[in-house]
Design goal:
This protein is α/β, with parallel strands linked by helices. It has a domain at 1-58: 3-Layer(aba) Sandwich (Rossmann fold), CATH 3.40.50.2300. The protein contains 5 helices and 5 strands. It has a 5-stranded parallel sheet, with helices on both faces. The longest helix is centred in the first third of the chain and has 13 residues, at 13-25. The two termini are 15 Å apart.
Length: 122
C-alpha cells in the first residue's frame, strides 16, 4: 500500500521538525519545504494528498502560493490547511469559498492536527 504524502510549507524549522514527527505518527509521509516557491517547484513531482500551508512566509506568502496552486497549476482539488498563528484569516477564507481549504491555529495540538487531516483524507 502506498503511503499518502502531506506537504508542509513552513519557514520555521522547529515547526517543520515537529510536523515531520507528527505526520509520521499519523501514518503519512511528510514532504517538508521551507518556502512557497520551492513547494510549487515540487508539487507535481511529489503529488501530495494534502498541503499544510503557513501564511506568513517569503518570498511568496501562503495566499500567493494558494493563488498559484489553484490558478496557474490548476490544482483546485488538493486539500490545503492553512497553518497560522493569526485567527484573522477567516474572512479571507470565506471570500474564497474553497471547499478544499481548512485552517489550523498555531500552536496546533496533535489531536487538532489529526482531526484537520482526517477531515480531508479519511
Amino acid at each position: 500500500m502506498t503511503v499518502r504524502k502531506i506537504m508542509v510549507v513552513e519557514d520555521d524549522q522547529p515547526i517543520l521538525d515537529l510536523m515531520d514527527l507528527l505526520i509520521r505518527k499519523l501514518g503519512y509521509e511528510p514532504v517538508l519545504i521551507a518556502d512557497g516557491l520551492g513547494a510549487l517547484e515540487l508539487i507535481t513531482k511529489e503529488s501530495p494528498a494534502l498541503i499544510l500551508l503557513d501564511i506568513m512566509m517569503t518570498p511568496i506568502n501562503g495566499w500567493e502560493f494558494l493563488e498559484k496552486l489553484r490558478g496557474e497549476y490548476g490544482l483546485s482539488q488538493i486539500p490545503v490547511i492553512l497553518f497560522t498563528a493569526s485567527p484573522m484569516i477567516k474572512e479571507k477564507m470565506e471570500e474564497l469559498r474553497d471547499p478544499y481549504l481548512g485552517m489550523l491555529i498555531k500552536p496546533v495540538s496533535f489531536a487538532d492536527l489529526k482531526a484537520g487531516i482526517a477531515q480531508y483524507l479519511e
